[in-house]
């Protein structure tokens, strides 16, 4: 069985730490996992923000713009 380093793609017989670049496989993969989780959360927040703005624009004729003004005031305050 051969192990491939996730950082430099070096192939070796033993796992754990890369013989070529010294990367610890477990630490590297856990770092990549947390990076992917963070990126997914950021993407969800972006989509949520866009959908909230679209909802307020669609409600504009019904509410007369009052909820849109409240929405932007809330975003400026950082609530």
- Described by the principal axes of the CA atoms, the overall outline is rod-shaped
Strand order of the largest sheet: 1-2
What oligomerization state is this entry in? Answer: single chain
Instruction: Compute the number of strand runs.
Output: 2
Radius of gyration based on Cα positions: 23 Å
List the defining traits of the structure above.
mainly alpha; 79 residues; 2 strands; 2 helices; 65% helix; single chain; two-stranded antiparallel ribbon; 5% strand
SSE blueprint and pairings:
Elements lengths: L2 E2 L6 E2 L12 H39 L2 H12 L2
Antiparallel strand pairs: 1-2
Helix pairs in contact: 1-2
Summed up, what is this model?
The chain is mostly helical and 79 residues long. It contains two helices and two strands.
Question: What does this molecule look like?
Answer:
The chain has 79 residues and is mostly helical. The protein has two helices and two strands. It has helices at residues 25-63, 66-77, and strands at residues 3-4, 11-12. The protein has a two-stranded antiparallel ribbon with strand order 1-2. A hairpin with a 6-residue loop joins β1 and β2. α1 (25-63) runs antiparallel to α2 (66-77). The radius of gyration is 23 Å and the shape is rod-shaped. The model has no long low-confidence stretch (mean pLDDT 89).
């Amino acid at each position: 069985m051969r192990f491939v380093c996730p950082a430099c793609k070096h192939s070796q017989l033993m796992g754990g730490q890369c013989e070529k670049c010294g990367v610890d496989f477990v630490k590297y993969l856990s770092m990549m996992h947390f990076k992917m989780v963070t990126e997914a959360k950021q993407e969800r927040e972006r989509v949520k923000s866009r959908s909230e703005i679209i909802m307020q624009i669609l409600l504009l004729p019904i509410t007369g713009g009052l909820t849109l003004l409240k929405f932007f005031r809330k975003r400026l305050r950082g609530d």
